[in-house]
Amino acid sequence: MTMQASIEETLRGAMPLEWLEVVNESHNHARPGTQTHFKVTAVSPVFAGMGQVKRHQQLYALLSQQLQDGVHALALHTYTPQEWALRQGVAPASPDCMGGGH
Amino acid sequence: MSIENTIREQISSNPILLYMKGSPDQPQCGFSAQAVRCLMSCGKRFAYVDILANPEIRATLPTIANWPTFPQLYVNGELVGGCDIVTDMFDSGELQTLIDSVELQG
Questions:
Q1: Domain total for chain B?
Q2: Which ipTM score applies to this complex?
Q3: Is residue B105 part of a domain?
Q4: How far is A68 from chain B (nearest CA, A)?
Q5: What is the pTM for the complete model shown?
Q6: Most CB atoms closer than 10 Å: which of A4, A32, A85, B16?
Q7: B57 within a domain of the structure (yes/no)
Q8: B105–chain A nearest CA distance, Å
Q9: DSSP string computed for A75-102
Q10: What is the pLDDT of residues B82-98, one digit of tens each?
Q11: Least CB–CB distance from A56: residue in B31, B81, B87
């Protein structure tokens, strides 16, 4: 299974998701052809009432195995369905990696 | 002092503190660079720790903070978030409001 599929499967199994997009952004970064940089956009009602720090901590905890297995950049964009509607379904772009310290 | 205590001391004694890869002048990662740009735009002095130069902190802070990646921004002793949250807050103006509320000593 690819890392992308593993991330998707873990998140789908853990919470109801109205939208989930997992993008392998490794090609933008220091090591082409690897599976190290991912961007996750997740829209779920479970995020209601949680601050951004708690939402991210929850996703990091769910994906701890993937982080141990070589994912070291995980851009997270977490929204409730209401917040997602306000954004009209657009998540921010990730910055370019500079290749240092990996 | 244990490394945990060193980290707690850093977080409690620096009202605006960024743990990052590299330095604000020479960030070594795009995510750290973006967090620095947001913070600098807010116009207040901030402290930083280069975790590439401090491998013990790099190894230990994620377990203390329950946050596995860098950068990590702390304001008034609280984890504000990483690059994504800091950028969202900057875009919405929340970061400016938060930074403006910080009273720096000296």
A1: 1
A2: 0.84
A3: no
A4: 10
A5: 0.88
A6: B16
A7: yes
A8: 27
A9: EEEEE-HHHHHHTTS-PPPPPPP-----
A10: 999 999 999 999 999 99
A11: B81
Q: What is the DSSP string of A4-22?
A: HHHHHHHHHHHS--SEEEE
Q: Which residue stretches of chain B are H helix? A: 3-13, 30-41, 55-65, 83-92, 94-100
Nearest in space to B86 (alpha carbons), one of B54, B53, B46: B46
Is B106 contained in some domain? Answer: no
Residue B45 lies in a domain: yes
What CATH number did the domain enclosing B44 receive?
Answer: 3.40.30.10
When CB atoms are compared, the residue of B28, B34, B67 closest to A101 is B28
- A21-57 pLDDT per residue, tens: 999 988 776 666 678 899 999 999 999 999 999 999 9
Closest chain A residue by Cα to residue B31: A95
Inter-residue contact B102 to B15 (CB < 8 Å): yes
Question: Which tokens in the block code for residue B58?
Answer: 């790099």
Domain that holds residue B17: 3-100
